[in-house]
Amino acid sequence: MILILSRVFFFALFLLLVYFVQRFWFTRAWRSIGLLPNRRWRFVLRVALIALAVTLLEGLFEPLLVHLAWRLGFFNIPYSGLIQTILDPGRTLITFSRLWLITSTFGLLAVKLVKAIEWVTNRAARLRPGARAGGFNASRRTFFQYAACVAGSVPFLATTYGFADERLRLTIERVDVPVANLPPELDGLRIAQLSDIHIGDYMPPREIARAVAMANDLHPDIAVVTGDFISTEGDPLAACITELSRLRAPLGVWGCNGNHEVYAEMEDTAERLFREKGMRLLRAASAVVEHNGARLNLLGVDYQSDHPGPDEPPGPKLREIETLVRRDMPNFLLSHNPNSFPRAAELGIELSLAGHTHGGQVKFEIVDHSISPARLFTPFVAGLYRLPLARAASSNPIPSPVSMPTPKTSVVDTATGDGAKKAALYVNRGLGTIGFPVRLGSPPEITLLTLRRA
């Protein structure tokens, strides 16, 4: 009950924020239209403004309505069928409305920031010795009016770029990963990793096929997909897995479930579809993979929640695979949530592969620091990380990030200490998007990991 009430509370706050932001922009647009001399144009533009407001509301509430309809059983065929057929004529407007909701919010913040700076400078001007009464300066006011217009337009331009270009700009990351306890025969093993597909309106099957073809061109020895094939129930999970089944690797294609499969209660279905397509989805399970006469222990788990529900047993992450960790060969873990990495290092798992973060989808570099929404819930945003291997659980080790990878380059571990006693984690930025179909500073990623002896 407390969880339901908290969700209702935050949803109400969200609606309140949306109301005040849209009120700011629409009241100004209404007044601006009223300044036009032509009465007919005023009428037409105001009708269009009302239609736009209705479209924004539809775009805001459509996911909730579809979710409720699916839960109530009104639709018993895939979302890509009837519902998409109904919604397709207005898909462009719905996309615009979702983009508008976020850009208008940041645009308002930018405008208010300029207004705050203007207020501070005006106050400072009045306090200067010899300042005129009132402290009014026409040129300063004009400057800040133009500055507010420029600042308010930046989020709109950035979002347009992030939607139309960077969201679709697939990037290949080539990363050398030092792995503790790696036999000489496995040195140079190549792993292709995909993650966070999120098939749907903004990630159609043809885009997944393009990513799969690029991954196959890397000629990996083994291919892995670390969860989030869909975004919500009704998304075409079968179509996504069909495209992924075209991955080619001599040691097979392996995967694990992400949080969105769990939320949609599609974990069993995903496992079955993987099996039917000749792949394997690991769910609290392990498999021994042999290469060049040496063996590795490949493990996989369903999404490891940071906030377990009341029906989940208490205890640390990865408790379901504690008995599956081997000591006679290196252990590789597929776990969608990178926050399971500290526990994996404590269990003696040499390499973990994860996704989940999307690299924040939006990332800004300021001096030598990166700002990303993903840092609100994990220290493992994207790229290669290292932790002491097989440390006691009570030590609570702090992750030491490695330099972030750049396209077509290798990342070499620079962590201090004995490299042979370091566990490694790689976090893939994923292919798709969630929430808003925009990427800025965090393009979609296909990873080629080359294993090296630490």
Describe the structure in your own words:
With 454 residues, the protein is α/β, with parallel strands linked by helices. It has two domains: 2-127 and 137-164, no CATH class; 171-306 and 318-453, Metallo-dependent phosphatases (Purple Acid Phosphatase, chain A, domain 2, 4-Layer Sandwich), CATH 3.60.21. 39% of the residues lie in helices and 17% in strands. The chain has ten helices and 15 strands. It has helices spanning 2-34, 39-71, 82-87, 91-127, 138-164, 205-216, 237-244, 259-263, 267-276, 341-347; strands at 171-179, 190-194, 222-226, 253-256, 280-281, 285-291, 294-300, 331-334, 351-354, 364-366, 369-371, 383-388, 400-401, 422-427, 445-453. The protein has a seven-stranded mixed beta sheet, covered by helices on one side. A six-stranded mixed beta sheet has the order 1-15-2-3-4-5. Strands 10-11 form a two-stranded antiparallel sheet. The chain starts with a helix and ends with a strand.
Radius of gyration: 26 Å
| CATH architectural label of the largest domain | 4-Layer Sandwich
Coarse morphology: elongated
Helix-residue proportion: 25-40%
Strand content: 15-25%
Number of H/I helices: 10
Structural class: alpha/beta
The N- and C-terminal alpha carbons lie at a distance of 50 Å
Mean pLDDT score: 83
Could you give the count of β-strands? 15
